Amino acid sequence: MTILCVRFQLPPMYEAALPGLLGLLEEFTPVVQALPPDGALADLRGAERYFGRTAVELASVIRVRALALHGVDCVIGAGPGPMLARMALREARPGLTRAVAEDEVREFLAGQPVVALPGVGTRTARTLCEYGLDSLGRVAAAPLSTLQRLVGARAGRELHEKANGVDRGRVVPDVVSRSLATERPFTRDELDPGRHRRALLSAAEELGARLRALDQVCRGLTLTVRYADRSATTRTRTLPEPTAHSPALTRAAYGLYEALGLQRARVRAVVLRAEGLDPAEQASHQLTFDPVDEKVRRIEEVADRVRAKFGPHAVIPGTLAA
After folding, report:
1. Of 147, 185, 195, 307, which residue is most buried, by most CB within 10 angstroms?
2. With bands split at pLDDT 50, 70 and 90, how would you rate the model's confidence at 315?
3. Rounded CA separation 232/69 (Å)
4. Residue 117: which of 72, 73, 147 has the closest Cα?
5. What is the DSSP letter of 115?
6. Dist. CA 36–CA 17, nearest whole Å
7. In the β-sheet with 39-43, what is the strand arrangement from edge to edge?
């Protein structure tokens, strides 16, 4: 187990704390890949030899230092490669590292559903399940030729390798994130479109605030709706212009939702992702003579300054009615 996948339990809109936490990981290894908004991959092959400790033991030290120095807890998955570390993270809990040893890989993968494998989307999973290949154990046992007929030559080969525990991924340091995401889960399977829209409004406002805090804009928006049967639908839309303006993100999110045409759908969560991030200073904004739009943008700037000073839950007097 040489790769750690770490997810720091940061409060919403506190992605600005991530660089400091990445610096903590870099005290153990220079091979650290950021996974914004709140995670990272760390290759500890050299660190295990240097410190004379296993990756799991080093994970415990990282967790203690994150709590002591930053007041942030974390969950950690460990595995022989990045793919397995990411999958192990899904079963991790605060205070306990979920580790998958090399001799446990096949057993660990065998009981996982096909959708748990990174890179397997809803359409591919549906195709495999139609032929009874609903678990990675069954996919691993299937002939390569069968998988290639179902999903294509290249995809079938990669699927066969991954299901058999072949992890060719690597940790790439200093990869700049090209997206930000936020999720709004429901406490129960939600059928009310009004609640769906309120969740989208909240998610869009959070994304806008995070983008502005990082001085970035996005060029596209992706909506993923997760349903009670664990399936999901994803749609992406290119924005008219790069923006970090919350109302513009909200309008795009509503448009994506309405285009799905959901009818009495039992929704478990909605995920909104800002795609194609660029520095805000490089973006152009189409000027408008609409005084309402300009007023909203000024209020937005004031709200960002208040949140930066008093925290993400600060309330501006006079905005409660909104």
Report:
1. 147
2. very low
3. 38
4. 147
5. G
6. 11
7. 32-35, 39-43, 3-8, 74-79, 98-99
Ramachandran region, residue 119 (left: φ > 0; alpha: ψ -120 to 50; beta: rest) = left
3-state secondary structure of 187: strand
- Residue 160: Cβ-neighbour burial (10 angstroms; 0-12, 13-18, 19+): buried
Residue 139, exposed/middle/buried by CB under 10 A (0-12, 13-18, 19+)?
Answer: buried
Phi, psi of 59 (to 5 degrees): -60, -40
Q: What is the pTM of this model?
A: 0.59
Hey, what are 177's tokens?
Answer: 């994130």
- 123 three-state secondary structure: helix
- Strand-pairing partners, residue 238, are 220
Query: Comparing C-alpha atoms, which of 122, 90, 84 is closest to residue 2?
Result: 84
Bridge partners, residue 3, by sequence:
43, 79
Q: Would you call 210 exposed, middle or buried from its count of C-beta atoms within 10 A (0-12, 13-18, 19+)?
A: buried
Q: Is the previous residue joined to 312 through a cis bond, with omega within 30 degrees of 0?
A: no
Helices (H), 95-176: 105-110, 122-130, 136-141, 144-151, 153-163
Cis peptide before 94 (omega within 30 of 0): no
Distance from C-alpha of 121 to C-alpha of 133, rounded to nearest angstrom: 14
Query: Do the Cβ atoms of 42 and 3 come closer than 8 Å?
Result: yes
CA distance 242 to 284: 7
- In angstroms, how far apart are the furthest CA atoms of the chain? 66
Instruction: For residue range 151-204, list pLDDT tens digits in order.
Output: 999 989 999 999 999 988 889 886 555 667 888 999 899 999 999 999 999 999
